[in-house]
Design brief:
The complex is a heterodimer of chains A (187) and B (382). With 187 residues, chain A is α+β, with helices and mostly antiparallel strands. Chain A starts with 5 loop residues before the first helix and ends with a strand. The model of chain A has no long low-confidence stretch (mean pLDDT 91). In chain B, the strands form 3 sheets. In chain B, strands 2-8-7-6-5-3-4 form a 7-stranded mixed β-sheet, with helices on both faces. A 3-stranded antiparallel β-sheet of chain B has the order 9-10-12. Chain B has a two-stranded parallel ribbon with strand order 1-11. Classes of the chains: A alpha+beta (187), B alpha/beta (382). Chains A and B meet through strand 2, strand 3 and helix 2 of A and helix 9 of B.
Chain lengths: 187, 382
């Protein structure tokens, strides 16, 4: 049996943020071909690029489950850029240390995070591209200024009378283009 | 503690401990000595040999003591490729214990042809595949009596016939089978057989090799006249005496215990399959030892299960361990065609005659919630 710290065992026995998010902003599925472990990660991100919710699932040993749990705890409330920088060492320290043979278990968590953020950005780029295309196709309408783009949310400044109507029609077109429900809001 | 890892090692029988104590204390004489103090101990060694021979249904003169199963296996293979210069090849199976498989690969590196026969999906050796690699150049065929991980019992009489048709010798690693199932060694056509003391409630560090009378043989270990030159080295008297008592106990308990243990194993298997979704028994279709079940839990990783069971004081094992970044799934399960992911969900339960009903009940009580807990966080669970 490995010498695990009490904190690590607590995270293994009572994993934080275990599960999945329906329609997450970012999703990843990664695996370690070396040891056959696998992990999924879902993130929800607010308009300031801060991770507001995070859920994981892990197929792996106690070390893998605990380090995934710890990684999600560290990531929650952090910006994407900051979450991307969560290192194995940080996860191991958070858990009160790990047997050196188990360091590799936490690598999967970092990969899952990187991939989930990449997925988030890809979706966001998709929404942005779709919006740009739709707006370019509109002529003579109200003036629209893009404030913020999120995979499933777009914040706009609309200069005109029928802002709710514009939002509704943009939302419908964005859903058609991206395959996701995209909320369009006016600030 | 609930000990269900008897294929790793067994609890020493109290009778064995009582029997060996004098040889660790007052009766420390060397059986090879001329004086009465030593030579009297030789009589005890011979008594033990007789008891072991009786368990195997062979003559005492065909039983030689060794340091354990690994030495016996190595001895058999080394001797099996040395008795005829035109017969230097080895044929074995893909699911042998490393004591056979690694020794065979070492011999291969020294120029001996090696044929490794396939097993089918149940873990039983494919006799056609074995036959393909046995010919006039084969010195020895080695097929285990029962597999350590799955408990699957091999058709060794048929395998021995294949060896003998080609003029080769036949060896079986019976380390997991001796004491668990009746083994009419003579009827099976076995030329050499390996066994180990600590797998049948005897001491560690002692084993034996059966060598059928008339079998050509050359030793692995040289240095003294002990065991008629078959195995040199001062007698491990306490170990040998303990093995003798363990063999006697195994013979006495054979019917009663394999019956009761088999019932407990069935209870365990049925309980697991009915309470844990997707759980399957490896080699379920094959004839198996009455004490062994490897369960593939399918969507939860074995080391996580082991860790949780360990916390409950339940001792079992898995075919693989996740360490230093590599986890080789059990080569035995892989040989049976079990995919890597599923092989990494295997837990082996191995019972013994000391296993009690309440222990199995307790395992069943603890196991299902624990599996459900891990399934809840597994990306694979359906």
């Amino acid at each position: 049996m490995w010498k695990y710290s009490e904190i690590l065992m607590d995270h293994f026995m009572n994993p934080r943020n275990a599960g999945s998010i329906e329609e997450p902003d970012g999703h990843s599925e990664v695996g370690s071909p070396q040891c056959g472990d696998a992990m999924t990660l879902d993130i929800e991100v607010d308009d300031s690029d801060v991770i507001t919710d995070i859920k994981f699932q892990t197929f792996g040993c106690a070390g893998a489950i605990a380090s995934a749990s710890a990684m999600t705890e560290i990531a929650k409330g952090r910006t994407l850029d900051s979450a991307m920088k969560i290192s194995n060492r940080e996860v191991a320290e958070y858990l009160g240390g790990m047997p050196p043979e188990k360091y590799h278990c936490s690598v999967m968590g970092h990969e899952a995070m990187t991939e989930a953020i990449r997925d988030f950005k890809e979706k966001r780029d998709g929404t942005a591209a779709a919006l740009e295309k739709i707006l370019a196709g509109i002529s003579g309408g109200p003036e629209v200024k893009v404030v913020h783009i999120h995979p499933s949310r777009v914040l706009l400044e609309i200069d005109g009378d029928d802002a709710p109507g514009v939002c509704a029609s943009l939302s419908g077109e964005l859903q058609k283009a991206t395959g996701r429900e995209v909320e369009v809001k006016v600030v | 503690m609930i000990y269900l890892d008897s294929n790793a090692t067994t609890r020493m029988a109290p009778e064995v401990l009582d029997a060996i104590m004098p040889y660790l204390t007052d009766r420390f004489g060397n059986p090879s000595s001329f004086h009465t103090f030593g030579s009297a101990v030789l009589e005890e060694v011979e008594l033990a040999r007789g008891k072991l021979a009786e368990l195997l249904g062979v003559s005492p003169g065909e039983v030689y003591f060794t340091s354990g199963g690994t030495e016996s296996d190595n001895t058999a293979l080394e001797s099996g490729v040395s008795w005829d210069p035109s017969r230097k090849g080895i044929a074995t199976t893909s699911v042998e214990h490393p004591a056979v498989l690694e020794a065979a690969r070492y011999l291969e590196s020294r120029g001996h042809a090696l044929h490794v026969a396939r097993v089918d999906g149940s873990g039983v050796v494919d006799l056609d595949s074995l036959r393909e690699g046995v010919d006039s150049g084969t010195g020895i065929v080695s097929v285990m009596t029962a597999n350590n991980e799955t408990g699957v019992v091999m058709p060794i009489a048929e395998a021995a016939a294949i060896a003998h048709e080609a003029g080769a010798l036949f060896h079986t690693d019976a380390v997991q089978a001796v004491g668990k199932i009746p083994l009419p060694v003579d009827e099976l056509g076995v030329d050499m057989l390996s066994l180990s003391g600590h797998k049948l409630h005897g001491p560690k560090g002692v084993g034996a090799i059966y060598i059928k009378k008339g079998t050509p043989f050359s030793p692995l270990i040289y240095g003294g006249h002990q065991e008629h030159g078959v195995r040199a080295g001062t007698y491990n008297v306490a170990g040998i005496v303990g093995l003798g008592i363990a063999a006697e106990l195994a013979r006495q308990h054979m019917n009663e215990e394999t019956g009761r243990v088999r019932v407990l194993l069935r209870m365990l298997e049925e309980g697991i399959v009915s309470s844990c979704p997707e759980a399957v028994i490896a080699g379920a279709e094959a004839e198996r030892l009455p004490n062994t079940a490897t369960v593939l839990f399918t969507s939860v990783e074995s080391e996580a299960i082991l860790t949780l069971l360990d916390m409950e004081g339940i001792v079992v094992s898995s075919g693989s361990a996740c360490s230093t970044g590599s986890k080789d799934p059990s080569y035995i399960l892989s040989a049976m065609g079990v995919p890597q992911m599923q092989a990494n969900t295997a837990i082996r339960f191995s019972l013994s005659r000391y296993t009690e009903t309440w222990e199995i009940e307790r395992v069943l009580e603890v196991l299902a919630p624990l599996i459900m807990k891990l399934r809840a966080i597994s990306p694979y669970s359906r």
